[in-house]
Specification:
Dihydrofolate Reductase, subunit A; 4 helices; binds NADP nicotinamide-adenine-dinucleotide phosphate
Amino acid sequence: MKTILIFVSSLDGKVTKWGEPNVRLWSSHQDQDYYKKVWNDSKLIVMGSTTYNDDTFNPSPDHQIIIMTSDPKKYKSAVVAGQIEFTSETPVELYSRFMKKGYPQMLVVGGPHIATSFLREQLIDELWLTIEPKIFGMGANFAIDAKLDIDTRLIQYEKVNDQGTLITKYAVLKK
Ligand SMILES: NC(=O)c1ccc[n+]([C@@H]2O[C@H](COP(=O)([O-])OP(=O)(O)OC[C@H]3O[C@@H](n4cnc5c(N)ncnc54)[C@H](OP(=O)(O)O)[C@@H]3O)[C@@H](O)[C@H]2O)c1
């Protein structure tokens, strides 16, 4: 199973503008269209409870959305069988469960806490990073509060507008 981590970031590496949750207020419409397509093409999508609580999306039989939380009971009323699930599994447990089920791909859509816990366990195969040519100074990076030492290799990049938004893909090099 290929595990993909996807983020949109500013030039100075921020995935939130000054800590505010709504990424759509600053990401380009080209990135938003791209993200929508990636989302639509993904069966299995994983996110943290904060990212879930910050956004709204409708359940769909086309997607199995897994929300990671230490308190799944809190979200009992939001569960939709086969479509929206809340789990307190670790990244390793989650990965193993879906790998055994034969899923070809897992899309991890953040936020930084979830991304870091997957990176720490070396569970990410590719990082799909959109770089918006903006500088925020303050805000969260996609990897936080951990000493990581991960090498990647650029495998794809595309400039998608005049301002220079770059849609990139990096492979994580296994040690
Ligand atoms: N720019 C982008 O592409 C992008 C993408 C996604 C999110 N974001 C932004 O990122 C922000 C949210 O990120 P975040 O890092 O604060 O939260 P997050 O990663 O979405 O969620 C973290 C929460 O998940 C739960 N959790 C369950 N298992 C965990 C584990 N193994 N490791 C860590 N957390 C675990 C914990 O909450 P409980 O146990 O209490 O439920 C934890 O507080 C939002 O502002 C959002 O807009 C940006």
